[in-house]
Amino acid sequence: MDHAMRRAVVVTLGDLGRSDDWRDRADAGHSLAGFAEMQEAAGPLLELVLDPQDTFVTRRTAEGLLRRKDRAGLTIVASALAVADDNQADWIHTAIIDVFGISPEGLDEALRLCEEMSGDTDDQIVRGARRLHENLLVIDPFPHPAQRGSDLRCEGADPQRQEP
Questions:
Q1: Tens-place pLDDT, residues 99-132
Q2: Is the pTM of this model over 0.90?
């Protein structure tokens, strides 16, 4: 898709993100996260993560950004965390757990990116990156590496039995 078409999609999703309906805003935030690397998307995404009317919009948008597992998504989440109220921060934390708590894949890279963002020139990103880093450090992903493979057995299962 060329840049003009991508920009048109971002503008349209930004408009949807200003809807009075929380479902429209949540859908817009989740979809707009796919365009987080575009400068035009950053403002609307930050507004949706910090939605003052509905925390589902906050959670859904943050989750979409975090699932990218890249600097663009993490930077917007960090910027939001720097200024989020306690309720918004709780739902952002829930999205962090939803994305990084299931599998350790991407967690180390996210921690590395947070450390990198801590050296940014934007104070809001620095504060948010530190807070995001703290949120990521408490994650204990499941399954634990020691529990993978043969250590995960159903109780009573016969390890010698082969499926047909």
A1: 998 777 889 999 999 999 999 999 999 999 999 9
A2: no
DSSP state string for the chain: --HHHHHHHHHHHHHHTT-SSHHHHHHHHHHHGGGTTSHHHHHHHHHHHT-SS-HHHHHHHHHHHHHH-SHHHHHHHHHHHHH--HHHHHHHHHHHHHHHSS--TTHHHHHHHHHHHTT-S-HHHHHHHHHHHHHHHT---SS-GGGSGGG---TT--TT----
Is residue 100 within 8 A of residue 65, CB to CB? The reply is: no
Radius of gyration of the chain (CA): 19
Q: Which long-range contacts (CB under 8 A, 24 or more apart) does 127-132 make?
A: 127/81, 127/82, 128/77, 128/78, 128/79, 128/80, 128/81, 128/82, 128/83, 129/74, 129/78, 131/78, 131/81, 131/82, 131/89, 132/74, 132/77, 132/78, 132/81, 132/96
Average pLDDT taken over every residue of the chain: 88
